[in-house]
Amino acid sequence: MESTRQAKIARLIQKELSEIFRQQTAKTHGTLVSVSAVRVSPDLSIARAYLSVFPSGKAQEMIESINRSAKTIRYELAQKVRYQLRKTPELAFYLDDSLDYIEKIDNLLKPSDASNDE
Length: 118
Known about the structure:
The protein is an alpha+beta fold. It has one domain (4-117): K homology (KH) domain (GMP Synthetase, Chain A, domain 3), CATH 3.30.300.20. Helices cover 51% and strands 20% of the residues. It is built from five helices and three strands. It has helices at 4-24, 59-68, 70-81, 98-109, 113-117, and strands spanning 32-40, 46-54, 90-95. Strand 1 and strand 2 form a beta hairpin. Helix 1 (4-24) crosses helix 3. It is globular, with a radius of gyration of 18 Å.
């Protein structure tokens, strides 16, 4: 069960990370990265951010690149939330492939064009 404090910190981190990634979009040559969810550990020391990447073909390499630069991103985040949080949690980034999963399910449920011609 997530506490109110955890939820508030998760929302703050999600908002600020979204802004950081929005600013980085120009450097990533048109690859969009959005923060779909953030989960904060009960001791507030670790924040797991789930990222959605478009186009999804570049998703794995983007996640690896973001994880390599996690310390820099944490520093930028710390500058933005320094008046709200005493300590900025360690960041771990994961791929949120739920949109791809939803699209796959939609395609499976959609009747094919061949059956409509009959």
